[in-house]
Amino acid sequence: MSKVSRFAPLALLMVFAVAAEMNLQRARAEWQWRRAESPGRAEQACRLVEGNPDCWRAAARLREQQGGDALPLWLRSLELDPRHAEAAMAAALSLEAAGRSSEAERLLLRGAELNQLWLPRWSLALFYARQGRKPEFWHWTAQAFDRSYWDRTAMFRQCSAQGGSATFLLREVLPARLDLRLALLRYLAGQAVDDQLLPVAQAIVECARPDERGEALPVLIDAIGGLARAGRPEDAFQVWMSMCRQHLIRYNAPSVETPVTNPDLRAPFLGTGFDWQVPAANGVSSRTLTGGQGVRFTLTGSQPEETVLLQQWLFLRGGKAWSLTVDACTQGIDATDSALYWRIVDAETSLPYEADRTPLQGDDWGTTRLRYQGPPGDRLVKLALVASRRPGRIRMQGDVSLRHVELRAEPLP
Q1: Chain centre distance of CA 186
Q2: Using 50, 70 and 90 to split pLDDT, how confident is the model at 15?
Q3: Contact 404, 264 (CB under 8 A)
Q4: pLDDT, tens digit, for every residue of 305-329?
Q5: Distances in Å between the alpha carbon of 187 and those of 138, 154, 190, 197?
Q6: CA-wise closest residue to 183 among 166, 195, 171, 168
């Protein structure tokens, strides 16, 4: 047997032993950097596993956590893995902090190309905001919104800081998506920008489909309430009318001249906005009339001395008289006890407007017409059917049924 043949197994064994030792060292080094608590230990381990970019990224994160300069570590990881978007963005931030803005921009653009999700795009937008480059900021903000999800509050705050109004965002920045418009309206509802609520609410109404009403209605109703509280009842009513026209609300749209929503009292009531509301009251129950049109209230005699049975918020144009037409009947209520009155009450002063004071009464269906002197200026008011107790009489017992309530504007005499 030749000497080469004799020592071949030994040489092969040595090769395997060296390879095993190297693998063991690499495994030990990987175990060390994965558990390293200081950047120094992590970097030491990285030199033993030189070709592992994950190790250098971990060391860079540790260096940043301790307030050190992680740029060389991020750049080393990029040399090993040029297509890692996170490393590109992290290195870009360090470059920008060092005043190397052009290099930072190139890396951020590379990150946005490699990873087309929200974070790289928003990172670019913030970079351009810091650089005072508004055209680029708005471009990348639009791109970021297109990939955004969950809470966009910080994005809208930055847009406000850059001078972007709600109308500008709708026109130039936000993709025409319902979720983004709803997010903008929620954000504006918490800001002192009541003049911007109307265009955003109208934009939501324009793009929302009837099958999306469950998502859109609560936000729009909140906006209507915000507009009303801010002294903008006409804007609130415009949003409501648009919701009806776009079938987000199932009623025919009211108008400024005939402001009552759902005059035929078709159930179920929405119970909010400008729809009918039935306040809960002791001693009073209600049910829908046969066919789903109209409502009946039953008074047990144990109700409070003055009880609102039915009410609806309205926007009234000033300088007009108003004619109220009601189809109703009562059962079991003595005419001498009847004190069922319709009132129009001012939302700010809580004072009723001057009106005819004719109570509802009669066992057969009949039409009652009442005339009200309207406010001198545009106002938010509440139309309410009130059950009272006449002085010296017992509280009413019996039923009152309604099937049509309409208010119509008339010119002043």
Answers
A1: 4
A2: very low
A3: yes
A4: 999 999 999 999 998 899 999 999 9
A5: 19, 10, 6, 10
A6: 166
* Residue 86: exposure state from Cβ atoms within 10 A (0-12, 13-18, ≥19): middle
Question: Which SS3 state, helix, strand or coil, does residue 103 take?
Answer: helix
pLDDT over 60 (residue 27): no
Burial zone of 335 (CB within 10 Å; 0-12 exposed, 13-18 middle, 19+ buried): exposed
Query: Per-residue confidence at 63, pLDDT binned at 50, 70, 90?
Result: confident
**What span, in angstroms and rounded, lies between the C-alpha atoms of 7 and 251?**
97
Contact 289, 266 (CB under 8 A): no
CA angle 267/273/276 to nearest 5° reads 35
**Per the structure block, which two tokens stand in for 394?**
């017992």
Query: Are 166 and 188 in contact, with CB atoms under 8 Å apart?
Result: yes
Q: Which helix (H) or strand (E) holds 26?
A: helix 3-35
- What per-residue string of b and e applies to 356-369 under the rule 16 or more CB within 10 Å gives b? eeebbbeeeeeebe
DSSP H or E segment with residue 411: strand 398-411
Token output for 209: 């489909």
Q: List residues bridging with 405 in a β-sheet.
A: 326
| Coil vs helix vs strand at 40 | helix
Contact 181, 174 (CB under 8 A): yes
Q: State how far the Cα of 313 lies from the Cα of 228, in Å rounded to an integer.
A: 10
Q: How far apart are the C-alpha atoms of 320 and 377, rounded to whole Å? A: 9
